[in-house]
Model the fold of this input.
Amino acid sequence: MIRPAVTRTDSARGCSPELDAIDLMLRDLKTRHDDIRHRAAFRGCTHELLVLQEELVEYLLSKKIALQAAG
Done:
């Protein structure tokens, strides 16, 4: 198992691996993925894809806030 190195900036910020993962996932969800959007348009589910994306962002943000409050 490969473990990422912890840098001083990570330790100074008090980031946990779970918070880092949430931040990465949020960044990915906010990135425009044209190939996925094209497939959604072809299948007729663009609206549903965008709604699901927003629900995931809201869930991850609430989870992030809860983790920060607990830590």
Q: What stands out?
A: Confidence is low (pLDDT under 50) at residues 5-12.
